[in-house]
Amino acid sequence: MITVIGLGPGPIEDLSLRAWDRLTQCDTLYLRTRRHPCVDKLPEHLSCVSFDDVYENYDRFEDVYSAIVETILEIASRDQDIVYAVPGDPFVGEATVSRLLEAAQARALDVEIINGISFIEPCLAQIGIDALDGIQILDALDVASQYHPAINPAKPALLAQVYSRGVASDLKLTLMNQYPEAFPVKLIHAAGSSADAVESLPLFEVDRSAGIDAMTTLFVPALDPLSSFEAFQNIIAHLRSDQGCPWDREQTHQSLRPFLIEETYEVLEALDRDDPQALAEELGDLLLQILLHSQIAVDDGEFYMTDVLRIVNEKMIRRHPHVWGDTEVDGDSEQVTLNWEDIKRAEKAEVGKARESMLDGVPRAAPSLLVAHSYSKRAAKVGFDWDGISGVEAKAREEFEEILAAESTEGKIAEIGDLIFVLVNWLRWLGVDDPESLVREANAKFYRRFSYVEERAAQERKSLSECSLDVLESWWQAAKKAGL
Asked: Among 30, 289, 326, 448, which is most buried by a count of CB atoms within 10 Å?
């Protein structure tokens, strides 16, 4: 029999009666670490053997845990009972216990668990919150290794094992991808012991605390009830429910099409204005459309938002083998693009949707200038392009002459279309990857200058139709000189 005992957070008084009884019945106690406040007050007859020296023999915690587990299993395999004690509770932050249970099951060895008070209960007492308020319990080492914290910001979180200032530094950088740098947090030191203390400070200062040690936990309060993706999903599901909004309930994938397009263009407008606050609002409106489509899919039994997220996460990992695999790109973004296209073609072929043309995959419903740019760029990759920019310029002159030479209105219109396609190519040669933005800026420029003309006419107490073309043109030129 292998018995695992939780020693609790510190004082011997927190040790359970069941644990004490088991300790009085054994002769030898194996300790993951002797560095625990209650060790010196255990039954005097006990011969205590610690694994502290194992930590000195290995550079990685994984190797330390494996060595401890193998030692315990080797003793148990000799038909000897063994009692193994860990700080806190065996099922809270004890990697050796989870590994031990898995290995013991594989070897048909019995394991008895005697629970103890974990670090969680004293921490909750220190900060005065109920665990059922949605507290999230995470390993600080796991979060510190991430680039974005896997935390619901609308709920509080406890991050355990902030055992060094180095860990705290990595941890705060990850958290600041979601929380403001001055967000108020708490460091809880030695929770449950006589030396317990709570330190309140802004997030950016957590790695400056002199009190950080092996028993430090970080408490991150809830950011805002409406700051999470889950809160947004709940609002949309509510709107689509019987207790929600009649308009939202009536919507379908097809009825929402114009709103999706409209919100996308409003995002582009915010980008053109270089307005971060407007961009935040418009991205929210665009996300609203995505969540509405996803909730309609849930209601109709098509798919879940979790499917959407899983599919796109898998796609991002699969299409970035230079990040999550062993592909080398030497920092070349063009090589990244080529790899991306190769992977996309392989994916399509795997599901029986191989492209018939290399131009397939460009959404035909996209803005026409974008489609023209994408077509020409793809064709250029295989050498179907001019030798130099002078060839594009010559082609533009040729197309313009063909417009003038066309004898019918229909012919002129068709030739103008050809000229527009050549102009998009010309822009590509000039390094413009988004002709739509260029035209939007031209439209915005026209709006500013025409508005100026309207203002000048209003100052003269005249309508535009009452002003001569020469006057209107003079005001237009004044707008240009003013930098509008």
From this structure: 30
Window from 90-94, 381-385, 390-394, 476-480 with minimum mean pLDDT: 381-385
The interaxial angle of helices 276-299 and 229-240, nearest 10 deg, is: 50
- Mean pLDDT over each residue of the chain, to the nearest integer: 91
pLDDT band of residue 344 (cuts 50, 70, 90) is confident
CATH match of 2-117 with 3.40.1010.10: yes
Write down the pTM of the prediction: 0.77
Fold of 355-433: Helix Hairpins (1.10.287)
Cα 182 to Cα 176: distance, rounded to the nearest angstrom: 9
Domain range 121-220, CATH class? alpha beta
The Cα angle at residue 446 between residues 441 and 450, in degrees rounded to 5 = 150
Cα–Cα nearest to 10, from 123, 95, 97, 160:
123
φ and ψ of 272, to 5 deg: -60, -35
User: What pLDDT digit, counting tens, does each position of 286-314 carry?
Assistant: 999 999 999 999 999 999 999 999 999 99
Q: Nearest CA to 127 among 212, 211, 198? A: 198
CB 9 within 8 A of CB 191: yes
Among 117, 77, 71, which Cα is nearest to 96's?
A: 71
Enumerate helices (H) and strands (E) in the chain, giving the number of each. 19, 10
CA atoms within 13 A on the CB side of 293: 16
- Residue 267: predicted pLDDT: 94
Domains 229-299 and 355-433 share a fold: yes
Choosing among 3.30.70.260, 1.20.210.10, 3.10.620.30, 1.10.287.1080, the CATH entry for 229-299 is 1.10.287.1080
